[in-house]
């Protein structure tokens, strides 16, 4: 069984990857698995979402760890950390 999540990208990630897209994953996938699936595409996805890069995730508009399990229809957003001064 597969699920489909709606991806959204913000700030510098949006500039590189676009506004967002739909992503099909196996049921039971996590936020980390979604990131890995995007990295596996190579190119800009691999560069922007590489493990060494500081990237945060929000699941249905709430901060989420990479271990959070995704459900069909969820919104998953990736963005760089925000700093202020």
From TrEMBL:
UniProt GO MF annotations: nucleotide binding
Gene3D superfamilies, alphabetized: 3.10.20.30
Protein name, UniProt field: Molybdopterin synthase sulfur carrier subunit
Entry-linked InterPro entries: Beta-grasp_dom_sf, MOCS2A, Mopterin_synth/thiamin_S_b, ThiS/MoaD-like
Keyword Nuclease: no
Annotated GO CC locations: molybdopterin adenylyltransferase complex
GO BP terms in the entry: Mo-molybdopterin cofactor biosynthetic process
Keywords assigned by UniProt, alphabetized: Nucleotide-binding
């Amino acid at each position: 069984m597969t699920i489909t999540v709606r991806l959204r990208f913000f700030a510098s990630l949006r500039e590189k990857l676009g506004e967002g897209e739909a992503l099909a994953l196996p049921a039971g996938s996590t936020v980390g698995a979604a990131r890995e699936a995007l990295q596996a595409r190579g190119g800009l996805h691999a560069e922007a979402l590489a493990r060494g890069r500081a990237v945060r995730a929000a699941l249905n508009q709430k901060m989420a760890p990479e271990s959070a399990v995704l459900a069909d229809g969820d919104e998953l957003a990736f963005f760089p950390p925000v700093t202020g001064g």
